[in-house]
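For reference, the entry.
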Amino acid sequence: MVKWIATATGVLVSGAFIYQFRHDIDSNTARIRHHLLTTQNHLEAGLPGHLKSATSLPPPPSGPKQLPPNDRPQLPLPSISQLRTYMTHRLLPTFKSLWNDHIAGLARGLNEFTAKDAYKSVTNAYATVKDRNSDSYDSKKEE
């Protein structure tokens, strides 16, 4: 019962996020189009008569126009075969090569690891910290 509630809640929340993102994208796109049309009309109004185009643009809408859901221009979505091609030829090989590089680097580091080198590096780090602390202590003592 708990898993069902968590799943249903997750589906509802993700649906709400998707709806909100879609609404934001639609409103931002309408706002950008409105801004572009206004700017284009403003620039064309400033041109001399012989440079203006023969076809005049319609006046920009008064605000961002909300189209009904079925009348919204749809972005072309890639087909399943294009997604599959991208996944198999581009994304997965890139991820696999990065993963292999990291694992190979980790294995190389483990192979080159020796206790003697680790002891030397820890001893050197300790000596450096000790020297810094003693120098700062000596400078405070002199003041």
The CA atoms of residues 114 and 120 lie 10 Å apart. The radius of gyration is 32 Å. The first helix runs from residue 2 to 45.
